[in-house]
Structure of Aromatic ring-hydroxylating dioxygenase subunit alpha:
Amino acid sequence: MTAPSTPRTAEDLVSLGLRDHWYALCPSTDVRAGELTRLVRAGEQLVLWRDAAGTVHVQEDRCPHRGARLSLGVHMGDRLACNYHGVQVDADGVVVSVPGSPGCSLEGRRALRTFPAAEHAGAVFAWFGLDEPDDEGPPPLRLPEPIAGGDWEHFLCYVEWDCPYLYSLDNLLDPMHGAFLHRNSHTMSGGRREAQFQIRDTDTGFVFEKTDQRDVNFDWVEWTDTGLQAVTLDIPYPDTAGPGGSFTIVATLTAINATQHAGFFWRCRKVTGWERDSWRFLYKHRLEARHWRVLEQDRAMAEVMPADAWQRENLYQHDIALVRMRRKLKAEAARQAETLSERGGNRGRTAAATAR
């Protein structure tokens, strides 16, 4: 098996994303039948493709022969062929043919790193583990309720921004900016511009909420980690926005590299039947453009944040959710980095003993 390119330091794991987690990679429509899609996510070089049945596969974009990009190769239905020397690899990462040297030792080997993948809510997800998954596979992908199916309807808004994903995560965990940055929004123009906050722990994360205002503006946010890190929040909607009550946003962020990220924002309402049809019509013809304007305000702010923003900030009571989230990420990153270091040391000792 090829050695994974997993980040090995705690700093890298924070900036590129913890391992042993599911990450959204791209909208499902970006991976088209018969084509190869090249992506960089969480610092990993990836190739995405669909087999003849339409099932999506996510693999390292590296031919096990000489390291050429498989994304420059040929889609053969149930396998990929490297364009450099024709080496063919299947969806499990097994080399099934070496046309230039039939019967060589590379044939039959599982030599390509393959990431467990799933599709839900219009997006492709993959599991990035510290180890290769065992025969049972990784833990199942657990989605927040509004995008898990049932009596909810949603639209996916996908973005790629030129800033660390952590800056967008800070923004999502900061309800107070709604009353300032988005004060001219049709949904966030009301309410007080001062507040007190509290944190409530949950089984999968925490809720950060105003203690003196509810259902007026961006008044609460929930951060969850179920193997997929996600943020859920509600924005009150006026009656003119149609049926379904408050407008719910589910967001998850995936680093591309240390300075760029992909953002997935699902716009959700709990509606069925004719209410679903009414909501979909209103969203596409009246509301969607307004939501993109709000996202653009966030992008413009995040992309010009200085690289040393965390090192030079001065936090106050409104920022306690940021502190809680950062502590959780750093603690888990330190644990994972220690595990990787120990494994690296053990491999080194094993190699030295073998050499003797």
User: Anything to note?
Assistant: The chain is about 25% helix and 30% strand.
